[in-house]
Amino acid sequence: MKFLTVLMVSLCAIACSQQEVYNSAAVSKVNHSKSPIEAAALSYDGQLNVVVNTDSVCLWQNKQPASTPKCLSAAHAQHIEIAHISKNNQFLYLSNRVSVKKYAINNLQVIGEWQVADNIINDISTSKNGRTLLLGFRSGKASIIDTQTNKVTTFQKHRLDINAVSLSENGQVAFTGSSDKKAQLWNTSNGETVFEFGHASRVNHVDISADGLVGFSIDAVKDRKFWDLKTGKLIADLDTYLKFLEVNDSVFSDDKRVFLTGSPRRVLQLWRVVDGALIGQWESTAEYGRASVLSVAMNEGNNKSIANAKSVKSIVATNSDGVVEQWDFSEFE
Fold first, then answer.
1. Predicted confidence (pLDDT) at residue 190 exceeds the cutoff of 60
2. pLDDT tens-place string over residues 39-94
3. CA angle (82, 86, 91) in 5-degree steps
4. Residues 6 or more apart from 215 whose CB is under 8 A from it?
């Protein structure tokens, strides 16, 4: 029955699209766990994958699937629900929602730990170099942490829970989504709001491009929007009639032309930013029955399969069964 539901959702998404949707079979599949996992995070380029189980945290090299991973002991894995890898592939962050620890990727040694009063952490994001850490709290507050100087600055940004956060590559601009039905773009130096976007219901997920110029926000009911963060104007809505579209993780391509999402329904979707069109869709493999997509990544390169996604060579996803898969864009003959 679960498989039938996923299949029906996938078919509906394709049928509701306004153009042909690209699809391909996975070129590789590796299972990094013998049971469902607690959390996972891919590096921005998809080359690293961290998998959190109840008794370990392991870092895998996706280019070398047969290699032995580097693992932390069970003590480091207790109650971990959030994992994140800095875009420069140098730092790993793990959170139990009360505190965040920063580890060096090369040796998995702890190099910092932070918590902010009694705040419960809902989401985290970092700058490319890993120095700036953004925490979003259930209290509606957000903290900016300089992980080198340990300076912590906390702002009351929303009236209700902050459900999702995203930080620009340089760490200067934050995008946050809340149960107060607002998504906010704001300066991390002083907390000043640049733009505020209203939604029909609670905002469950947000994302921002590397340069901080394009954003995405999605609420629990119907709003799924791309924003021009330079002007505050709407670029496009996602072109789909699906009533309940959820996003666990997402990433913009470097040129900001396409946007990849991963959902709790095992589905990965590639969207064109300029008009919100669905241009690619894939399905993650279930091993133990759940297989919610937890983390997605793109490998930059050149493809001839999708005219509007030429900067994307392949996509990678990790799901809640610990399965890591890669899909390549085939070359037309």
1. yes
2. 999 999 999 999 999 889 999 998 887 778 999 988 898 899 999 999 999 999 99
3. 85
4. 166, 175, 183, 185, 206, 207, 208, 209, 226, 227, 229
Q: What is the spatial distance between Cα 180 and Cα 166, in angstroms, rounded to a whole number? A: 17
Query: Are 222 and 200 in contact, with CB atoms under 8 Å apart?
Result: yes
Which structure tokens are listed for 162? 């902050």
User: CB 63: neighbour CB atoms within 10 A?
Assistant: 9
Q: Are 51 and 33 in contact (CB under 8 A)?
A: yes
Q: Is the pTM of this model over 0.70?
A: yes
H/E stretch holding 251: strand 249-252
Distance CA 31, CA 286 (A): 10
**Taking a C-beta distance cutoff of 8 angstroms, is the pair 138, 132 a contact?**
no
Q: Which amino acid is it at 147? A: T
- Sequence-distant contacts of 14-21: CB under 8 A, at least 24 apart: 14/278, 14/281, 16/240, 16/241, 16/242, 16/278, 17/239, 17/240, 17/277, 17/278, 18/239, 18/277, 19/277, 19/278, 19/279, 21/278, 21/279, 21/280, 21/281
pLDDT tens for residues 238-295?
A: 999 888 899 999 999 999 999 999 999 999 999 999 999 999 999 999 998 778 999 9
Q: Which of 68, 65, 74, 82 is nearest to 31 (CA)?
A: 65
